[in-house]
Design goal:
By secondary structure, the chain is an all-alpha fold. Helix content is about 75%, strand content about 0%. The protein is built from 4 helices and no strands. α2 packs antiparallel against α4.
Length: about 150
Amino acid sequence: MLFTSRNLVAFALVAIASLAFFSVGCSRSEEPREVAPPQQSAEPINQFSRMEDPEYRKAMSERIDTRKELYSMRYRLVSQMEAKIAAAKALLGTDDEAVLKVELEKDPEWNSLYQRVVDINTALEDNHRRSVELVRERILSDIRKESAEQ
């Protein structure tokens, strides 16, 4: 009963399909080609490493630390604001944003939190802008040095 014609036909089909699959999939049609190394330019490439400058590293590190502090402060303030929103939703029994906004604007503590978050966002944008300016100035300085050397 184990070797019925139906089982033998199915086994033969699987065996033929497996052989065809492995014989086609495992052969290479081409020899591997060698990849030519990239051509070197006649002029040496001058690469400047700003990270070797301790003043630059210190300035960037200070900016990063300031940004981390600002993000941390903003996170705490937003957590307080979310608690106020949840309390207002529970008090009013509604999820309507317009109603919640009107109610929250009456609360002086909410307005204080909101203004502090706006101030922190402004400080973060200013910090980012100054960081970009610092990097840009350093790149331009490196380009001027390279031009003066040639």
